[in-house]
Amino acid sequence: MKILAMKAIKVNPQLGLLEALEGGRLLIRRLDVTANNLANVSTPGYKRDVLGFREVLMRKFPFRSPDDWRTFKEVTPKTDFQHGPIEHTGNPLDLAIGSEGFFKVETPNGIAYTRAGNFRLDAERRLVTAQGYPVLADGAPVVIDPGLAKGGLTTIENIRFQVDTSGVISIDGTEIGRFDIVTFNDPNKLKKYGENLFVAEEGAQEIPVENPDLRQGYLEGSNVEPLVEMVKLIEIQREFEAIQKSIQRLGDNTSRMIETYGRT
Asked: Residues 6 or more apart from 123 whose CB is under 8 A from it?
């Protein structure tokens, strides 16, 4: 009689615990992203973050058999570039891009990009972002020179600072430049720099936007939907509770197994 040899089945009693801990790690990442989105509900031009997951194969232990592999979930954060709502403010320094594209700004570390148009004037009368970075037009900072205003009037209201839909800047009818509005061949090559700015990764190609549909006196709001993010927080909380109960049960089972077989 021929007896078939069967390969022993290896059971890892801690596998469930490893899976639960991995799930907890992913939930912490989701919580961080969701909380950050909610914190920027009122930030002009803010683009919410979303998380994607994919399963990849990895070695559990580097010095065991070649068959000792397991899968784990890899987090892939992405930015949702969907436009936010455009709202009227009446402030002539507020600008919203009605089409695709980004304003170019100059930072100490190089060129960055933003859709946040809540600009102001600094002490040098340059048009700057809320963080103080110069906004570029024709490759140079925009300077609102009061000498261009009729009668030498110096306030924004009196110098009649105007921006048309194509991005051309005028003071009392005198053109002084055109905003550099650009888009990219692949928006996914933009990464968040902080301070509501993006920087381009290697391989990103700038494409000038010919008709940016700029709207003076308007601001683009955040594309975060508070209700959606709040629902996510509730889901995360419930999943945390489920993982905690799972870990508790696994711990109890391990303790009983040790108690039972430790006596034999």
From this structure: none
Give every CB contact of residue 92 below 8 A, 6+ residues apart in sequence.
Answer: 156, 157, 161, 162, 216, 217
> Residues 167, 178: contact at Cβ < 8 Å?
yes
Q: Which helix (H) or strand (E) holds 251?
A: helix 226-261
Give burial (CB, 10 Å; 0-12/13-18/19+) of 122. Answer: middle
Say which residue the tokens 């601001």 belong to.
Answer: 219
Averaged pLDDT score across all residues of the chain: 82
Q: For the purposes of burial, counting CB atoms within 10 Å of the CB of 185, is it exposed (0-12), middle (13-18) or buried (19 or more)?
A: exposed
pLDDT at residue 261 above 90? no
Distance of CA 220 to the CA centre of its chain: 16
Q: Which residues pair with 104 in a beta bridge?
A: 113
Contact indicator for 134, 105 with CB cutoff of 8 Å: yes
Query: Strand 95-97 to strand 86-88: parallel, antiparallel, or no bridges (unpaired)?
Result: unpaired
Mean pLDDT of 32-36: 92
pTM: 0.76
* pLDDT over 80 at 215, yes or no: yes
Which residue shows structure tokens 């930015």? Answer: 79
